[in-house]
UniProtKB/TrEMBL annotation:
Pfam families xrefs: Amidohydro_3 (PF07969)
Entry annotated with the keyword Hydrolase: yes
A Gene Ontology molecular function term of the record: hydrolase activity, acting on carbon-nitrogen (but not peptide) bonds, in cyclic amides
One annotated Gene Ontology cellular component of this protein: cytosol
Keywords: Hydrolase
Domain Amidohydrolase, chain residue ranges per copy: 46-549
InterPro entries for this protein: Amidohydro_3, Metal-dep_hydrolase_composite, Metal_Hydrolase, Metallo-dep_Hydrolases_sf
Record-linked PANTHER family: COLLAPSIN RESPONSE MEDIATOR PROTEIN, HYDRANTOINASE/DIHYDROPYRIMIDINASE FAMILY MEMBER
Protein name: Amidohydrolase
Length: 574
């Protein structure tokens, strides 16, 4: 007797992704779509027993940098290891298209500096058989991968493509330059770009230490470019504003772009660890924008924003000390042996940092530098910081960090909690996440290979706030809404993030009781043998994309149903 459905997820507790009440029942899937939701559904060719488990929509990761990884790899991990079924790349205005052959080295330099992807990895991993942004999208569409991916048109490549060396040098765009960028933007939207992305952040530097092409560009340029989205009738404006300049100066960029283009916007928001809660003022401005008829959403990391530091990684507390250069080329065991020498110890404990990339300095913010062990604690008590431990021991924070490296044979990791940890608490992150115009994000999957591993934020949200939230608890229905439909709608994706009859069969079966986030680890699976941080989870019993099982019991199945998700202007013309 033939089965009625391709697959049935049977007996789970279902969160619909819209924030509705949890229900008990089955989900039947046929042809990549949800065919029925109810109890005691007919048989499926495949069945998954979800008794005692939770069934959620596949998560939408709105802020990634898989622009390169989606070319050289078929798995968009870590994101796909944490329940994500759709990822959005091209954020922060960096990427690889449009690009002439003569500008490839420059774009690699930008990506290496801003996103910590080694140049040799990109040189080895990218075949560059595209020039225009539509050609790049076609390249992505032709590839195989585990999850779906969508792309913004990035500002830095666009500016250099339109202006050449003048664009890289951050010269003011001429009217002809602006007209060309507007036309290319409209072309990109019609080819399927999800929107346009840029960065104004002052600490975003090239690998050479220079400002990126988009830093401090005139707002009139952004108005002209997003006019291309207006011409195409589609697209979301994504921006990293420079909070260091002050929100009262930076937030008006959002308002001006929305007013000029009529398009929605999304931007990065975090609380500071100290000082007045300026983020509440931003929420007020965000509410005013939406009340006035605009559409804007902030992206919020559900845990502290920061870096992971260690001897095997890009930064560590002694990386820019002059004496470190003497042993930087050695293996970690050899470095540890050298660090046991009293003379080198004395030098490294007293030397100031030499000039270097601003990210390096963040590994010496002693008050907010914590040990990161297994299981990883992303909300450690203040007394566990290097400064807190030093005060208790009557020594310097440098000594605490140095001794940790020796005691762990150089393998010890540090968490530099640089934001979203106001007064050593996640209360600010919790309040922002629950705001109607904020969505979880900023995982940066596909980038910061040697310094950040935040693509696991979906698992962290579930383990920290749902499973163990206490006073900061978030219900599973609300969390599934945050990670599903709420995130999807914020970036213009209207066909995913929910569990409904007729909808896409992108979903997770989760053992919430057993859901566990493990310590980040270094793997060497990038082109040219490059290393990256990866973070595993256990507790995802199944993840499906378009009805195909891509992961089962936290292991990949080898299925590759993932496709390029083209934006609304492309779909309207199709």
């Amino acid at each position: 007797m033939a089965a009625d459905y391709d697959m049935v997820i049977r007996g789970g507790t279902i969160a619909d992704g819209m924030g509705g009440d949890l229900i008990e029942g089955d989900i039947a899937i046929t042809g990549g779509r949800i065919a029925a939701i109810g109890k005691n559904l007919a048989r499926g060719t495949q069945e998954i027993d979800a008794q005692g488990k939770f069934v959620t929509p596949g998560f939408i990761d709105v802020h990634t940098h898989y622009d390169g990884q989606c070319i050289w790899a078929e798995e968009l991990s870590p994101s796909s290891s944490h329940g994500v079924t759709t990822a959005v790349m091209g954020n922060c205005g960096v990427g690889f298209a449009p690009c002439r052959k003569s500008d490839r080295e420059m774009l690699v330099n930008v990506m290496e500096g801003v996103e910590d992807i080694p140049g040799v990895v990109m040189t080895e991993g990218l075949d560059w058989d595209w020039e225009t942004f539509p050609e790049y999208l076609d390249k992505v569409a032709a590839g195989k991968r585990d999850i779906d991916i969508a792309a913004y048109l990035p500002h830095s490549p666009l500016r250099v493509y339109a202006m050449g060396a003048r664009g890289a040098a951050r010269e003011v765009a001429t009217p002809d330059d602006l007209a060309l960028m507007r036309r290319l933007t409209a072309e990109a939207m019609r080819a399927g770009a999800l929107g346009f992305a840029t960065s104004r952040l002052s600490i975003h530097k090239t690998a050479s230490g220079d400002a990126i092409p988009t830093f401090d560009t005139d707002i009139a340029e952004l108005e002209a470019i997003t006019g291309g989205m207006k011409d195409a009738g589609a697209g979301t404006f994504q921006v990293v504003l420079d909070a260091f300049r002050g929100w009262d100066k930076e937030y008006p960029v959002i308002e001006r772009v929305i007013a000029a283009s009529g398009r929605p916007a999304t931007f990065t928001l975090a609380s500071g660890n100290e000082g007045p809660p300026r983020w509440r003022r931003v929420l007020d401005m965000l509410e005013a924008t939406n009340a006035a008829g605009g559409t804007a959403h902030a992206q919020v990391m559900p845990r502290p924003i920061g870096l992971i530091a260690g001897l095997e990684l890009t930064v560590h507390p002694f990386v820019l000390c002059p004496s470190w250069a003497k042993i930087a080329h050695l293996s970690i065991p050899e470095q540890v042996a050298a660090m046991r020498d009293p003379a080198l110890r004395a030098a490294l404990l007293t030397e100031d940092f030499a000039p270097g990339h601003p990210f390096n300095e963040l590994a010496r913010n002693w008050r907010w530098l914590f040990p990161l062990d297994n299981p990883p604690d992303y909300a450690p008590p203040a007394h566990m910081s290097m400064a807190g431990q030093a005060e208790a021991r009557g020594c310097t924070p440098q000594e605490v960090a140095y001794d940790r490296l020796l005691e762990t044979e150089g393998r010890g990791l540090f968490l530099a909690a640089l934001g979203n940890y106001e007064n050593a608490s996640l209360a600010s992150a919790h309040e922002m996440l629950r705001h109607p115009y904020c969505v979880p994000g900023l995982g940066d999957g596909g980038a910061h290979y040697g310094a950040i591993c935040d693509a696991s934020y979906s698992t962290y949200l579930l383990t920290q706030f749902v499973k163990g939230g206490g006073a900061l608890a978030i219900g599973l229905a609300e969390a599934a809404h945050m990670l599903g439909a709420k995130a999807a709608r914020a970036v213009g994706l209207t066909d995913r993030g929910t569990l409904a009859v007729g909808g896409r069969a992108d979903l997770n079966v989760i053992d919430l009781d057993g859901l566990t986030l493990h310590l980040p680890e270094v793997v060497r699976d990038l082109p040219a043998g490059g290393r990256r941080l990866h973070q595993r989870a256990t507790g995802y019993e199944a993840t499906l994309v378009a009805g195909e099982l891509i992961r089962r019991f936290d292991q990949p199945t080898g299925a590759r149903p993932g496709r390029l998700v083209r934006g609304a202007a492309y779909r309207a013309a199709a």
